[in-house]
User: What shape does this take?
Amino acid sequence: MSGLRAEVEFRRPEFTLRAELAVAPGEVLAVLGPNGAGKSTLLSVLAGLLAPERGRIELDDGVVLDTDRGVGVPTHRRGVGLLAQSAMLFPNLTARENVAFGPRAAGVRRAAARAAADRWLSEVDAAGLADRRPGQLSGGQAQRVALARALAAEPRLLLLDEPLAALDVDAAPAMRGLLHKVLRQQGKPTVLVTHDVLDAVVLADRLVVLLDGSVVEQGPTRDVLARPREAFTARVAGLNLLPGTAREDGIAFGDIVVSGRVAEPVDGAEPAAAVFAPTAVAVHREPPRGSPRNAIPVRLAALEPRGDVVRVRGVVRGCSLAADVTPAAVADLGLVPDEEVWFVVKAAEVAIHPVSGGSSGA
Assistant: This one.
């Protein structure tokens, strides 16, 4: 296939990275893992900033690395665009000049490069920032300009290295929503390194989990997070994810409607997810009457003691959900597996996010 195919092995004292990836054109692959797992090392190898001991990387059916044949295309010729935690804009250039830098470096005439810069600044909702220098931009504004700069160079591969990690709590949701929109429109393979499960939920079609330099889980984002096999994945997943179709103030999951607060912009009738913590869920034998809360019918799958609480796992239309309740509540309700109960959660505790990969449960 075209897109990205990579199989690499990178060694350093007391650490070895071994990874095999395939990312189709227009697909977003998220790489999740703890600090020291090898996430940024993997991006550096893909970009050509680090040379692995063994490996082969194909990009758009061309080979940019093959250690067996002695092929190693340098970074500036790989056609890779990078968006990192820091915007790394040229401080002496305006936003427009920063974005035009890539096309100009590729030989595009000045007028055409400026036109491309204006187009991409408009795409990332930063047209009004064109004449400002980086010192006049907020963190969120600078990241928008940096994204425009990465895309204006027309890369064959887009690498995102925790692009939201340095943003404050107000700027991050807006930038996450913008990335969701832009990445869906561009047809290049994208590899996203993140430590935030919400980045994977909103942006990624598929998810790879790295631990100690090795791929331990991979698959569609929803499947990996719903059925984690590793303790790390279960810990970071730690959230209920109910996929569906966006409505004005929530999602439709089959004939179930779940209301919540819209965390990032999402268009009506598009794939979206309701995200909420197990601690926000109450378990009822019957649906609460006359209540504005969300009530979701589930079939009990398991009861898992976790210190002071019991994690109650339920399944609805193939989707696994969890509620953390006290042992006393379990005893009072007489909960046993395979029974039908109701998971109830307040709308204020539910965040609505757009999702990639068509993971709708409608």
